[in-house]
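Exam prep: given the inputs below (a chain plus glutamine), describe the expected output before reading on.
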Amino acid sequence: AQHFLDRAKAQQALGAFLAIDEGVTLAQARAADARLAAGDAPGLTGVPVAHKDIFVTTDFPTTAGSRMLAGYRSPFDATVVRKLADAGMVTLGKLSCDEFAMGSANENVAAPAVGADHAVPVRNPWDTSRIPGGSSGGSAVAVAAGLAPAATGTDTGGSIRQPASFCGVTGIKPTYGRASRYGMVAFASSLDQAGPMARSAEDCALLLSAMTGPDPMRDATSLDRPAEDYTRSLSDSLEGLRIGVPKEFLGEGVAPGVRAAIDAALAEYEKLGARRVEVSLPRTELSIPVYYILAAAEASSNLSRFDGVKFGFRAKDYRDLADMYRKTREQGFGDEVKRRIMIGTYVLSHGYYDAYYLQAQKVRRMIADDFQQAFKTCDVIAGPAAPTVAWKIGEHGDDPVADYLADVFTLPGSLAGLPGMSLPAGFDANMPVGLQLIGNYFGEARLLNAAHRFQ
Ligand code: GLN
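Solution:
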């Protein structure tokens, strides 16, 4: 723990951490030592982990990357945080993310980073002039730069897989409902899922086994299915595995260097005994408008709780209650969050609900059906996690749509609630390229097995 805290301090300029508390971490580490000495220690005892600052924690402040939660301290731990602590892990601190997990570049963070008195964009350690991806950018950077051996992330539309891809680490988002959402600051509840990010599929398997499982009293959407040991089948043979490559995932718009890295990875899989088959996910591009309607709609509802009364920030000067709400939300939320609240409110409003929200729900179902069609002829789907490598900080300027378009390959799986992961596949102009693997429901073990054999 001391080693990683020192690394985090030395690499502060990356902006990965939003909270560190050496006293808390070292106390947890000493308690882990005592458990080890007493011989009553679960498998991950003493292994440090850092949490995306979207998970609430009693030992550290939680900001969700927002000004809105400045000064907020949760009275309880998120289930994922508690489960990893129960497994013996030691918390290194809280990691930067886009505000309320809304973003693809970690440029939307509005909470100050450790060592800075203001918010800073997180930097990709492979090239610090580039973004690390988002929204779990701090998590990807912490692992890639060796500031933590593992980290938690959340993935609503790609926020584990895309930053893992951009930073050359491994990350997995399990089937929707596999990990409890209790204590994860809610963005889009029908999509939000937690998962691990680490240096290998094996490490991800260890964490995922510890952080998943039913949580019926606290998250009604957590699935009633016992936790699994994902390490058991890591070394299984890939002989005969049918890898479906959607033709829409390697078409126009994919950078040639990314396509080359993915093709090379798929050729490697063929050497391992897998078979490459072509499949189709015809509604891939539609996943962008569908996701940005549904996620915004859910966000506009979830974020109504931030009103200056219950959590964190409250505006200073106001006339009356309504004015307090207005000023708190005006000052507390960043631009992207406000944009989503407005879009979400619009698509849910009378007269537009049928035209946008309901239509998007219908297409979401079709996208899920397209996957089931594809899984008739393949076991695992593969393609790039993103069409390009990490772009330059500021490159997308004030154009949010440029960020949205970059999510095109992670959104379909999210809308279908399928498990997905990204693992390092190669490089394009010295920047990491991630191979995305998507499995059918509860196919996490198969994905981790396929990733492990490749690594
Ligand atoms: N980039 C997507 C968005 O901005 C996904 C974010 C996420 O998965 N949390 O909504």
